[in-house]
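Hi U.,

Before I forget, here's the chain from the pilot set. I'm dumping it here mostly so it's searchable later in email.
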Amino acid sequence: MADVKTAAARPSGAHSAGKAKSSNGFWINLISVIACIVAGWLIWAYVLGDSSNFSDPEKHKPLNVWGAMHVSYIIPFLIGMFLVMLVFALERTVTIIKAKGKVNGAEFVRKVQYHLANKNIDAALGECDKQSGSVGNVMKAGLLKYREMTGNNELNTDQKILSIQNEVEEATALELPMLEKNLVFLSTITSAATLLGLLGTVVGMITAFQAMAQSGAPDATTLAAGISEALYNTALGIGTSFIAMIAYNYFTTAIDGVNYSIDESGFTLTQSFAANYK
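Structure:
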């Protein structure tokens, strides 16, 4: 009875730990986003808004690109969004490089197949430690169950294979969320940056048309400022969206490659066990 209680307690503990980790991740992500928006505002206020970028103290007549960009109040949010994209693209790059491990997935699986064919499970486990990525983690969990099943005399071969499959699936379920985490930021920015840039474009065009609507000769300065505001918002929004889209597609492709190696590793374990321990 004690064993049953211990086994039942583990999922609850794991669930609580998972919730705590998820909660910590949420707050870290929230702080990162807020920090990027604040940084965007500081860049807008103190870099783009530096007095050297304007010909008058009131900052109405820009002298260069930076001064022209400072005219728009949408620009600091676009800069913040660009920084958010960079932060999470860098975070995903580090995570996926780590997940790929130190050894190519296909090469790693071939080495494990060789050791299992020679019934050298310890050597196969050593390859997992050398790989030190998501594929290695999943394979190691499966191999530990594999070794356990070789000494099990209570289950038949099909039940043992099913047990190995379940272990691989559980290990995979722990790895996949880590790989896909935070991709939602990149996918959201892909569309949100374009829409925010479009909002800045509309605001700039409104300013331009207001200058044209004045009686008498149009205010050329205000007209030019409105048009440049619209174009800079469009350029920054589309540029941010483009980079986010490229990054998102790259990361999803890389994750698909890791998933394929994980699936191959699970198939290798079950096929090897079926062949060597009938």
